[in-house]
Amino acid sequence: MTDKTDIILIINGRAHAISVEPRKTLVDAIRDDCGQTGTHIGCEHGICGTCTIILDGDAVRSCLMFAVQADGRHIRTVEGLADGETLHPLQQAFITHHGLQCGFCTPGFLMLAVNALEHNPNIGDDELLDVLASNLCRCTGYQNIIKAVRAARDEMRGAKAT
């Protein structure tokens, strides 16, 4: 029998007290123990970016961390982007610009792009492409993903300017 460790994951502002095996990945704890299934599991090797979340303000691959490493830390998942019924500008841009096909990679792209735009609202196209290149889309929807992120960036810039 494996000993379990009691931890608290603070996901989208809500504390989840859970008991996990020390080897349980953060993505599995988020999905299985906390019921936040918007974060997807892809390669489980940190390559595809599907499991990207924001941990204490930084985009991370949640398949590469153990849940115990996130004890007491602030986690933001795709479920935390919308403000009630109001979608985040990036979520709306993905809809408007058809930035998803099968939708499997979408949560990871949303979290990666939100983090990049929050850290650098004036991010240029080249740097933006470099950031987005770290996540994979198996349906080859990259062009519309890029259009959506650019549109959201421009809209978010405009909102800050007014």
Total beta-strand segments: 5
Mean pLDDT: 95
What CATH architecture of the largest domain would you give? Roll
Identify low-pLDDT runs: none
The CATH H-level superfamily of the largest domain is: Beta-grasp domain
Report Rg. 16 Å
Helix and strand succession? EEHEEEHHHH
Number of continuous helical runs:
5
The helical percent reads 25-40%
Strand content: 15-25%
Name of the top-level CATH class of the largest domain:
Alpha Beta
CATH topology of the largest domain: Ubiquitin-like (UB roll)
The description of the largest β-sheet is: 5 strands, mixed
Shape: globular
| SS class | alpha+beta
Molecular structure report:
The chain has 162 residues and is α+β, with helices and mostly antiparallel strands. It folds into two domains: 5-80, Ubiquitin-like (UB roll) (Roll), CATH 3.10.20.30; 89-161, DNA polymerase, domain 1. The protein contains five helices and five strands, in the order E-E-H-E-E-E-H-H-H-H. A five-stranded mixed sheet has the order 2-1-5-3-4, sandwiched between helices. Helix 2 (89-96) packs across helix 5. It is globular. The mean pLDDT is 95.
